[in-house]
Write a structure and sequence with these properties.
The complex is a heterodimer of chains A (about 130) and B (about 130).
Chain A lengths: L10 H6 L9 H26 L5 H9 L1 H29 L3 H30 L3
Helix pairs in contact in A: 2-4, 4-5
Chain B lengths: L19 H32 L1 H12 L1 H28 L6 H29 L1
Helix pairs in contact in B: 1-2, 1-3, 2-3, 3-4
The chains are: A mainly alpha (about 130), B mainly alpha (about 130).
Chain lengths: ~130, ~130
């Protein structure tokens, strides 16, 4: 860094690029990457749901026994819950101003998203492996 | 000006009308939260299918009921809205379409696309069902 620079930031701060919130752009970037991934996944999911609206159990199981369907459903669940917890965290950060309540509600939302996501993945794998 | 300073008053909350872009912005957030709640139904559906045919029948019965279909309709509309407006956010992230006229056009495209996709989905869905 040249000595006549107008910036008040140290060279180390600039190199790290984490900004004043100390988190950088990682959270924002994750939301964008999952959003892009969800465009094709959502389209696949909607078509899948339409095709199995009135399906009986055997037809539904047959659908998810296909490796491609299982792969897509697992990806849809994982990316959806990742995107959901990231989005809900921002909503909570915007509206809940009590620090303790904010942290606890973010943790609760993340825990719930992880549990639901894991439940979806296990359900798909169980069907796919024919257990 | 009413405050005597000659400077414009900031938006007066009791008469302030949300611009269309602001309305679409908060709708994006509301539909996002709604979709997150809707994942409960998705989880139930998958877990029920993995549990037993009887549990799956119960989930299918609920989804096929009037209340279930109402939820599914709201869910599909929210999903398409969030999808379309999300793509618009990605366009904004790329630094494009920030002019007021482009934002107005974007509003119309998002609302129109979400409505058309929802109606189309339900026409196909009910025909297949």
């Amino acid at each position: 860094m040249a000595s006549n620079s107008k910036t008040l930031r140290s060279p180390l701060q600039i190199a790290r690029g984490l900004g004043s919130a100390k988190h950088g752009t990682e959270h924002w970037w994750h939301q964008r990457v999952t959003a892009i991934a969800l465009v094709p996944l959502t389209i696949w999911f909607v078509f899948g749901v339409i095709r199995h609206l009135g399906a009986d159990h055997a037809a539904f199981v047959a659908w998810l026994e296909s490796p491609f369907s299982a792969l897509m459903m697992v990806l849809t669940a994982v990316v959806t819950f990742h995107h959901a917890q990231a989005g809900l965290q921002v909503v909570i950060e915007d509206y809940v101003h009590n620090e303790m309540a904010k942290i606890l509600s973010i943790l609760a939302v993340k825990a719930l998203c992880f549990v639901l996501g894991a439940a979806c993945v296990i359900a798909v794998l169980k069907i796919s492996f024919g257990a | 000006m009413a405050n005597g300073s000659g400077r414009p008053l900031s938006p007066h909350l009791q008469v302030y009308k949300l611009p269309r872009t602001a309305l679409l912005s908060i709708t994006h957030r509301i539909t996002g939260v709604g979709l997150a709640v809707g994942t409960l139904l998705l989880t139930w559906w998958l877990v029920a299918a993995a549990t037993s045919p009887a549990a799956y029948e119960r989930a299918q019965h609920f989804i096929g009921s009037f209340f279930g279909l109402l939820l599914m309709f709201g869910w599909s509309l929210a999903l398409y809205y969030h999808l379309c407006n999300g793509i618009r956010h990605l366009v904004w992230d790329a630094g494009k379409a920030f002019e007021l006229s482009e934002a107005d056009r974007g509003n119309q495209i998002v609302i129109g696309a979400a409505a058309v996709l929802t109606v189309l989905t339900w026409i196909i869905g009910l025909a297949v069902w």
